[in-house]
Amino acid sequence: MTTAADSIAGLYDRHAAGWDDDRRHRRPDGEAAWITRFAALAGSGASVLDLGCGSGAPIVPDLRAAGLTVTGVDASPSLIALCRERFPDQAWVVADMRRIDLGRFGGLLLWHSLFHLPPDDQAAMFPVLARHLTPGAPLMFTSGTERGETVGQWRGEPLYHASLDLSDYEGVLADNGLRLIERVVGDASCGGATIWLAVRL
Q1: DSSP state letters, 55-97
Q2: Domain 1-29+41-104+128-135+155-163 sits in which CATH superfamily?
């Protein structure tokens, strides 16, 4: 499944317009409430990092409305181009999230993005995430529930997802100075996603 994992950036880049259309018009009912909670923990005026930001919509408007400034990172140049067009006053970076070194932020979000990395790469991300957070800053991400890899289909092409076990996520959070505040497994209001909210100690 490594080939499918390696093709994620290209897949989103080829279908950037389609992804953007899907994302903006099929928003789960409960998503905005989670973003609002994350933003409240970060606090108005904070600078937050959105890893796997896609086209920026609909989450960036939520973050901006809460008084946050955004640095968005995505591996797709086409999606970042949409972000720059829509939100020219924010910072946008084309990069592989596994190789970033962007300083410290008052919040960090990986909404439906971490799960595109292979399991071992996901575990290796947590020191990177902790390094990018100031003390007290929130981290929020979505995941699966059992360690493994799956390849589905999206727009006629393979789409890779992977997960650690729930206990593994708990362990890498604790090992990297990230205190878990809440975890909801299979949140029906967010399409069945498992959602994690933690803060940097």
Answers
A1: T-TTHHHHHHHTT-EEEEEES-HHHHHHHHHH-TTSEEEE--G
A2: Vaccinia Virus protein VP39 (3.40.50.150)
All CATH 3.40.50.150 domain ranges of the chain, comma separated, are 1-29+41-104+128-135+155-163
**Residue closest to 57 by CA, chosen among 16, 20, 2, 95:** 20
Provide the residue type at 64 as one letter. Answer: R
The answer to whether the CB of 74 falls within 8 A of the CB of 138 is: no
Asked whether the beta carbons of 154 and 11 are under 8 A apart, the reply is: yes
What pLDDT digit, counting tens, does each position of 125-156 carry? 999 999 999 999 999 999 999 999 999 998 88
Rounded to two decimals, what is the model's pTM? 0.96
